[in-house]
# Entry
Amino acid sequence: MDKIVFTKNEISNLEYSLQREVLRANISNAYSCTTLPSCNTRKYHGLLIVPQPKVDNQNHVLLSSLDETIIQNNQAFHLALHRYKDGVYNPKGHKYLESYELGLLPTHTYKVGNTILLKQMLFQEKQDRLLIKYTLQSADEDVVLELMPLLAFRQIHRLSVANDTADTSYENTSQGIKFRMYQNYTPLYIQFSKKVEYQHLPYWYYNFEYIREQERGYDYLEDLLSPGKFTTTLRPGESLYVSCGVEEANPFLLSRDFVKETRFRFPIESMEDILRRAARMFFAQKGTKVDVVAGFPWFGRWGRDTFISLPGLCMAIGDWRMFRMAIDSELEDFQNGFFPNIGSGSQSAYNSVDAPLWFFWCIQQYAYANNAREQVWTLYKDVMKQILDTFSEGTNNVRMDSNFLLWQSQEGAALTWMDAIIDGEPVTRRNGYAVELNALWFNAVMFYRELATLACQDGETARWDEFAAEFPEHFKQTFWSKEKGYLADCVYGMKKDFSVRCNMIFAVSMPYTCLSLKIRQLIVEKVKQELLTPYGLRTLSPTSADYHPQYRGSQPERDRAYHNGTVWAWLIGAFAEAYLNVYGSNAVNYVEHLYRQFGNILTDYCVGSIAEVFDGNPPYTPGGSISQAWSVAEVCRMKYLIDKYKKAKEDKE
# Structure
């Protein structure tokens, strides 16, 4: 796969181009996000979106857009594109867009007559600053370039409304201006590599329409403030560098900064390059603390997502140092055997019973990939022991029963990953014995025994001997149906829910499984037959009366579909591993085919990344978060598994 290029015909078709979003994020969790033709369709879109520690430490949109206008022969050509209330587009600058290219750098090419203007954007890796390079590639004469910023200064989940309290003043800075609409915000600096003329004309623009929010049933109209306009003249062949950031830059070094930042980028020559670039954006670092952003543009750190995502993300970027730092960050909020599902510190919510079990799987992946079992035991033995003690002794919400199976329940709550709730009631009721929780539980205990044995901790090993001997039969008796040929999803008392769901795949994909090869084969084939799609696994079989084929509409409508048919991309990793576990190296070509199918969607939805979910029915329309950590991670881990099995086959031959 070469660089990604979108043509004039594709971009000018707004039904096509507005469905495709572009994202750039840096190591501090600041980002820039919009659509291919630079028309914002979400409240989460903007050119500069950065954390605001003095407000609420959440991400805020400071600079919504920077509208370009070319003036030649006293005629203005507006390159921007905005959608206003009732679907009115003005201006319609997308008609001048010749192409959008995602190669070493994202590049917009505008053509007005014989004038060709290139716009290249870089989000700096270690500073909350967007660098834009405008190059007048060709023109019959000098061209006037006019730039008009549109400011929001609001939290990403909210919308800006015109008001009299906004500070519309400005301050001069070196070859630029700084703005701060409200107190406690970091100022926005807009600076240039050459002197420009600034005309201060504060004016509110009303009723920008964000169609994606409208589709999702949220407020969707916003007012934005334009403080004024910047004007300069470009000669043919000349470049102008613009810095948009929260700290003052040295304008005389902008060209150098742009070139220096470019050196940290790598060209796109393969699907793996695209995924590696996407994987890097999920790491947010502040000092020695590293969080994994669950998904852009609205998710923060989630414990479960972090543990599922970390192995694949680190495999993709080839940097396991981030793994240790992210685990240490999670451990800061570890309490009483649990990790927070969301939040940190005083904002932590400990409502996930599977996050601690995914922690075991996560460090297990690290140990196996890096031959670091002794290191893992040294670093995490106390945490592992506390989790096992908590679960085996029991809490109000989770306990190990006399049959060694893990039981969980809480009124009005959903404690597994299928956690959608409407009006205080879980959409998918899974109280009791959940199949994937027990698959994870068995794997966790057996991995702990493996490490304890290696460390010659005979007492810790012996403590779980009875569990190891008895659990497999109890698991089989509880979940397996010989008649049906697959596992129950959950069991509560005498009631067994045999809805065909994706969760059974983890009983086959885990490094430690308690099922026979024949049973594992039947499970894999059942999942393949009813749940597998090109972009992940359905959460419920289409044969079910509760099946929801589409993920769209209001939040309640989406929540009903979320785990009742919607396809989740991250589940493809477990299916691939299960398939390889059952069929060995003979399955490599098939799994590689599944992996390569994801290359077909890397130019959809979020260009260069993978969505959170997809519709259950063709054409498998993407939805949810435009770039999801565990989606990217598990597809990347598929490649690791493929290479691992290929090498084993070659060594055997």
